[in-house]
Every structure is written in structure tokens, then in C-alpha cells.
Amino acid sequence: MDRQIDDLTQDLDGLIRALTDLVPYVGSDVCPVCGRDFGEVSEVGLIAHVSENLSQYTQQLERVRSLNLTRSAASRALESMRREITDLEARRLSDDDYGQLLERSEKLALHLEALEALGDQVAVGERLLVERREADAAVAAAERDAWVGTSRGHRWGLSWPPAGTSDGHQRGLSRGHGQSERQS
Ligand SMILES: [Zn+2]
Fold first, then answer.
1. Which of 29, 116, 132, 155 would bridge with 38, disulfide CB 3.0–4.6 Å?
2. Which has the closest alpha carbon to 38: 143, 161, 160?
């Protein structure tokens, strides 16, 4: 889990850096990566589209980071609670005190479980990220192979983030790409 979150954080960080480095080269709707005119697939300018993607990735990264911080804090609290119980056990605490402490630690364990479940959602996000990258690579390869006379989806046009998490503007873009891909 920690490893997954670390990987996801690095992936998002890398994507954000790559996009940020690319921004100065986006002077018109002609894509600096593949040389195609973004206007073919979208009414929204390429600069606006890249900026939108950047802000989506940045939000995702902030969410992952704050989730990770919360998780670590809960983990530490549970660990210290368990140590406290062990300490008190050694000093032969009353059944009442012991029961209360046990109850508190069980509640905390439940909180931690809920947090781990949130972590599973992060893993889903990571899988989507991998799928998106594979799709990007496939589109880039197709663009290289069929440079002329094709109206395939633009490299930046694949829908991100997954449905339901984006605003109307982003959904509008994704629909636009779907249409242009069906026409081809
Ligand atoms: Zn391109």
C-alpha cells in the first residue's frame, strides 16, 4: 500500500512536470509532440486543454498526498494506543480501564480500516493512470505510423479523469473526441 501510494505520487509528479515543461512550447493549436492541429478534434484551444489537464493532475496529487498523511497519522495513533495498552496491562489495570482502552483501540482500528479502503480507491486511480499511459503510447505509435490522412483521436484527447470526477467543461471535451474518433 505505501509502495503503491509512493509510485502513484511519483507518477503524478512526473506527469505534472512533463506537462509543465511542455507548456512554453504550446504557442498555438499545433501540438508540439505530434505536430497535429488540436483544432481538428476540439473547439477548446490546446493551451486551455493542457492547463485543464495540469490542474486535474495537480488536484489528484494533492488528494493522494493528504490521504497518505491522514493514513500515517492514524497508523501512528493506533500503534501508540497499543503500546499504552501493553504498558497498562503490565501494571495490572482494572477490568474497567482495560475494557475502555480496548474499546478505544478497536474504534481506532476501524478508522484505520476505513482509511485503507480509501487507499484501495487510490489503487484504482493508479490502474486508470497506467491504462491511460498505455492508451497514450498506443495513440502516439499510431500517429507515427499513420501520419497523413488520418483523423484519429488527439494525443491529449483521452478522457481524464474518469467519468464523474471532471467538470462539465472536461466532459464536453471527452464527448468531442469520442465523436471525432467514431467518424474516422
Ligand atoms: Zn499531439
1. 29
2. 143
- 32-58 pLDDT per residue, tens: 888 999 999 999 999 999 999 999 999
Cα angle at 22 between 166 and 149, to 5 degrees? 80
pTM of the prediction? 0.49
Q: Which residues contact 37 (CB under 8 A, 6 or more apart)?
A: 29, 30, 31
Q: How far is the CA of 65 from the centre of ligand 1 (A)?
A: 30
Total length of the chain: 184
pLDDT (tens digit per residue) in 125-154: 777 777 777 777 776 666 666 654 444 444
Task: Give 30 Cα–ligand 1 centroid separation in angstroms.
Answer: 8
Task: Name the DSSP letter for residue 149.
Answer: S
Distance 176 CA to ligand 1 centre (A): 16
